[in-house]
Amino acid sequence: MTHSVRYQSGQLYSEHGAWFVRYRERRRQQDGSIKLMRRSKRLGSVGKYPTKSVIEPVRAAFMQKVNSGLVIAEESMTLCEFVESIYLPWVQTELRASTQKGYEEIWTNHISKRVGHLRLREFRTVDASRMLRGIAVDHNLTKSSLQHIKSVLSGIFTHAKNEGAFDGANPVQGALIPNSARESGETYAYNLAQILRILGVLPLLPSAVVATASLAGLRESELRGLEWPDYTEGLLAVNRSAWREFVNKPKTRASQQPVPVIPKLATILEAYQASMNHPSTGVMFHHGAGERMDMDKLAQRVIRPAVEAIGLQWYGWHGFRRGIASNLYVLGASDKTVQRVLRHARPHVTKERYIKTFDPSVFEAMERLQATVEVLEQSPARGQQVPAEVHAKLLIPNRGEMAERLKAAVC
Asked: Is the pLDDT of residue 349 over 70?
């Protein structure tokens, strides 16, 4: 049985150049029971309060709040207590299994041991900054990995504000990623010529998977989630996402948009379907027993060796998804159109992370610059302005030549 807490005066002590008061509080457990727990509160530095008599009024004022019930358990809750008792259970019920796994790994591997002991309501931006600097030094992570860790910690405080366990501005948002952290490696995209070479050396099943990834732009989890009823009337409906044994709805509402199937992809899919005795139901890509294909194993055992055998590098499944974005863009599709094909919720994600090529207008503008330089060099009087009629011709792009150049870029 838990006894009630009578009036407490608190135990005053100094440690590490600061004054603390130790007291007890009632804390509700997950099973609903109440448990008395010992807590300590930092009152101030020894430099500011050099003697007990000077710090005593601060102790008395704080303990008066404790005894009057104005100090609630959440005010002394550590980050670790909040995450393990409130945040992670919420993650497990509200977020996708793959997201849940990633968040739990980041919390366990990088955050909990460094700042988990800090009180939630006393957490400052400097604590997040020191944490990120320490991780960068100890693990040599890239800036993008550190940004992901920062985002997880920031999300914890956002949830704490929604639960009433934290007030004020999110202290993580102002934390800076260390400039000394290494930059992320460049990502790559397969061009159309490379995709056709890869398709030409693969057996029918892996060829159908790669064709769907590179000519429709589906994510790895969406490839695993495909079923035969999703393929109708020249469209692939993206109805589910499969990660390990978990099958969910697609990543976002935008991800649920159907994708047009071009004739090249249709030919491969129909040949694959015929080889499977024309199924109309069930999983599209499976390993014989009707279970969803493990795309990582398929890539490592079949696709990657085939890719490397023809002198290309393996860039992972996202190399095909970045490939369709880059190929469409080179062929003149707008950012917005590419975004709709990839079904991204935000256009900047498409442009910044998936389109791996220069805007054709950049090449066009530089060629016009070179042409202008040549005209000026041939002019009898150096420094003379380019004649108006010549200037007009230089500014008007030759669309026929541009189209040929675009075709050459992907062949």
From this structure: no
